[in-house]
Design a protein that fits this description.
heterodimer; A: about 200 residues; alpha/beta; 5-stranded parallel beta sheet; B: about 200 residues; 8 helices; about 40% helix; globular
Chain lengths: ~200, ~200
């Protein structure tokens, strides 16, 4: 069975990001995936301290609600990161998760205790679900590399973007039923692709 | 009244490379009133995305952002310093910038953000461990958001971007980086005095 971990970085409950994410998850479940959802705003966690403790032994010095999330993440076949665009990037909550992934980077490049071969990467997919209020030509451009850094460090091939720019002009996800149809379809397709 | 400089260091690491570069730059502003804020010492909650500020122009949080936000609006020069973490500003910096949504709401939705009294200037300082091309391309637009909602026009914003400054103490050990910081500080001070 395909295991999907969906991490929602939006602080807003029942907002646009959560609404399209739910539609995406519905599609994924229809395709037979087992889905676990995590809402970052419900967790208590600290920002990376930049202490470089992980550069010595590959372990983060901070133990909090994110610690088990990283365990779950390493078990998933599909990792979904969902975040609206706030000030030209992912939300502070999502950025805090991504910065805390530094210990994985350290394991890969400093302690050299973690590596992902082609076979692993072929079986692990990274998905970004993004929303933005405004429909600017480069709305998501500064978020992509941040997400890519995290997917690379955690062993997921970042191949899928599910993007919904211009939420404001549509009156949000609820005023834009096509966005939900599209999200559900993509959820289903991405799981089906993994099953092949 | 001397010109006022508000410098915000956002790195979780004290006296690291980004902060050292900031300190070097601040040496250029003798004669001005300089305040340096250590963001990590403040209590600032993340933006909840509740959208209240779009209606009221006021943030629902009551924390240290209120006072810092006033300082951001009042200063003549805003110097903002963040290291590059995972291809962007650090999460601490992002948290502050997301809270500036209240300025965005007042500027673009409510149209009631008072115009600054004098000319405002901005400077973004960032150090990155790596040297690969485009290292700062996705960090600068986030800082640019802060300057935009702080009503600082692009023509009066300067960047000090230092790639390949990796290990603890690397900035101070690099005569080129130190010279670059001094030059950037001096150029900004001259620009402010001239205008």
């Amino acid at each position: 069975m395909i295991k999907m971990l969906a991490i929602n970085g939006s602080p807003r409950k029942r907002g646009n990001t959560e609404t399209v994410l739910n539609a995406f998850i519905e599609g994924a479940k229809e395709a037979g995936a087992k889905v676990t959802e995590i809402r970052l705003a419900d967790l208590e966690y600290k920002n990376c301290r930049g202490c470089n403790g992980c550069h010595k032994n590959g372990v983060c010095v901070i133990k909090d609600d994110l610690t088990p999330v990283f365990d779950q993440l390493m078990e998933a076949d599909i990792l979904v990161l969902a975040s609206p665009i706030y000030s030209m990037s992912v939300t502070a909550e999502m950025k805090a998760l991504i910065d805390r992934g530094q210990f994985l980077w350290a394991q890969k490049f400093v302690t050299k205790t973690l590596s992902f071969d082609e076979k692993h990467l072929a079986k692990h997919t990274g998905v970004y679900i993004g929303t933005s209020g405004q429909d600017l030509p480069h709305s998501f451009d500064s978020a992509f590399p941040v997400l890519r850094a995290f997917f690379n460090d955690s062993g997921f091939s970042y191949t899928e973007n599910v993007l919904f720019p211009g939420m404001d002009q549509h009156g949000g996800a609820k005023g834009w039923p096509e966005s939900l149809v599209e999200a559900k379809k993509r959820g289903k397709e991405i799981v089906m692709k993994m099953k092949k | 009244m001397p010109l006022s400089v508000l410098a915000i260091t956002t790195s979780p690491r004290r006296h690291g490379n980004t902060e050292s570069a900031l300190d070097k730059v601040l040496e250029s502003f003798s004669g001005m009133s300089v305040e340096k804020v250590i963001l990590n010492d403040l209590n600032i909650e993340p933006c909840r995305g509740c959208g209240k500020c779009e209606k009221t122009g006021v943030c629902i949080h009551e924390d240290d952002f209120a006072a810092l936000g006033e300082k951001i609006r009042a200063c003549d020069l805003l110097v903002f310093a963040s290291p590059v973490y995972s291809m962007s500003v650090c999460a601490q910096a992002k948290m502050l910038i997301d809270r500036c949504q209240v300025f965005w709401s007042r500027k673009y939705i409510l149209h009631d953000l008072p115009k600054p009294e004098g000319k405002k200037f901005g400077m973004f300082i960032s150090a990155a461990g790596q040297t690969r091309e485009g290292m700062f391309d996705h960090t600068v637009p986030v800082a640019q958001f802060l300057f935009d909602v702080s009503q600082i026009p692009s023509s009066r914003i300067r960047h000090l971007l230092l790639p390949g400054i990796d290990k603890m103490g690397a900035f101070k050990k690099s005569p080129e980086a130190v010279a670059k910081a001094k030059e950037a500080g001096d150029a900004m001070a001259a620009l402010m005095v001239e205008q």
